[in-house]
Amino acid sequence: MLTIEEARRLLDVIKDDRLEAFWVCALTLGLRRGELLGLRWDDVDFANGLLAVRQTLQRADGSLQFVDPKTDRSRRVVPAPEPTLAVLRKHKRAQAAEQLAAGKRWQNFGSFSRPRSEHPSNRAISAPGGGLPERGRGSTG
Known about the structure:
By secondary structure, this protein is α+β, with helices and mostly antiparallel strands. It is 37% helix and 14% strand. It contains five helices and five strands; from the N terminus they run H-H-H-E-E-E-E-E-H-H. It has helices spanning 4-14, 20-29, 33-38, 82-102, 123-126, and strands spanning 44-45, 50-53, 56-60, 63-67, 76-79. It has a three-stranded antiparallel beta sheet with strand order 1-2-5. Strands 3-4 form a two-stranded antiparallel sheet. Helix 1 runs antiparallel to helix 2 and helix 2 packs antiparallel against helix 4 (82-102). The radius of gyration is 15 Å and the shape is globular.
């Protein structure tokens, strides 16, 4: 659990990072890592400010797989604050630009938390430093 000051510092460090949307959602929505990584653009209702948790990304049998949430309570719709939706809108535009630049090489997983040119993965999120950009590690500002 982060203090308010730590959360503010994290938001400052991740500003404009390609994982900014992931971390903003992690801070504001209270979802588990697998739930965050399982979110797809189809799960985001921008008009009503809602995100639907319909699948998770889990490592099973040595590979990453999208699976149903473990319980009925885990399958849910959560309200998203407008600042979170704004970050998601910005990220969606950036991802569309990446897709255009990649052309035929683009692999569409529908996920918004996918690392650059890779399948959605929790590798960056569980890496030393928690996937934070280098400038954020051990920094005080």
